[in-house]
Automatic annotation (TrEMBL):
Entry keywords, A to Z: ATP-binding, Hydrolase, Nucleotide-binding, Transport
Signal peptide: none
E.C. number(s) listed in UniProt: 3.6.3.30
Cited Pfam families: ABC_tran (PF00005)
Gene Ontology CC annotations of this record: membrane protein complex; plasma membrane
Enzyme class: hydrolase
Residues in ABC transporter domain copies: 4-224
Domain of life: Bacteria
CDD domains with a match to the protein in the record: ABC_MJ0796_LolCDE_FtsE
The protein, known as: Fe(3+)-transporting ATPase
Membrane-spanning ranges: none
GO terms for MF: ATP binding; ATP hydrolysis activity; transmembrane transporter activity
Organism: Pseudobacteroides cellulosolvens ATCC 35603 = DSM 2933
Length: 224
């Protein structure tokens, strides 16, 4: 059962006089409750595709269905709500607020998601425990390693119980072992929390951990 499905998805960019098709006629499905990796060379269109699927960018052509609802046909406000409630994002460079502790970063995310104060404390602590940072939740980001900071970002991304997490090169700034730990954590989240995760990477060690792999070449999905 796919959580996301696309039909003839395309995205063009105008560069000077020229219009270049960066994503071309992509038909893909992201399966619910799985860890899917989107892989491809630098410049193949991974980030562009991920931004379209996460509704951070608008397609030039085609449709994107989320839980069978056509996201390209719904009003902006409804789309904002759908994104806020159902999607979580993790980026390559960890975007934690440096003046807030790990706990405060996660709690703040819940505040933005509209959680009431009484629920925020428990859920923030629970998520920091899930990512293995229960004992360090009151550390400031600067007192945590790169891998630990990324785990705080993951705790923040899962806190509001999204259906899907989009992670764009979340291991790119980590050493191989730390990167592998982050992906193993993703795998646990998929298995134990029922979340769907789509992440981009070009690291072959990480690809082995995935349930599904989608390869993109020059803006097109290729199947082996
Ligand atoms: N806003 C934009 N305007 C013009 N061209 C763009 C824009 N965004 C991306 N591109 C181009 O689209 C192509 C694909 O970029 P994208 O960032 O999606 O690739 P990627 O596979 O994620 O690469 P990397 O692995 O290096 O992050 C690149 O050639 C890039 O220059």
């Amino acid at each position: 059962m796919p959580i996301i499905r696309t039909e003839h998805l395309g995205r063009d960019f105008r560069i000077g006089e020229e219009v270049i098709s960066i994503i071309k006629q992509v038909n893909l499905s992201i399966e619910k409750g799985k860890l899917t990796i989107l892989r491809g060379r630098s410049g193949s269109g991974k980030t562009t595709l991920m931004n379209l699927l996460g509704t951070l960018d608008k397609p030039s052509r085609g449709k994107i269905f989320f839980d069978n609802e056509d996201m390209t046909a719904i009003p902006e406000k409804k789309l904002d709500n759908l994104r806020r409630l159902n999607m979580g994002f993790v980026f390559q460079s960890v975007a934690l607020i440096s003046l807030m502790s790990a706990y405060e970063n996660v709690e703040f995310g819940l505040r933005i998601a509209g959680y009431e104060a009484s629920q925020r404390k428990n859920r923030a602590e629970e998520c920091l425990n899930i990512v293995g940072l229960g004992k360090r939740m009151h550390h400031m980001p600067a007192q945590l390693s790169g891998g630990e900071q990324q785990r705080v970002a993951i705790a923040r991304a899962i806190a509001h119980k999204p259906k899907i997490i989009f992670a764009d090169e979340p291991t790119a700034e980590l050493d191989t072992n730390t990167g592998l730990q982050v992906v193993k954590l993703f795998k646990e989240l998929v298995e134990h929390e029922g979340i769907t995760i789509l992440m981009t990477t070009h690291d072959p060690n990480i690809i082995e951990v995935a349930d599904n792999v989608i390869t993109i070449e020059d803006g097109e999905v290729v199947y082996e």
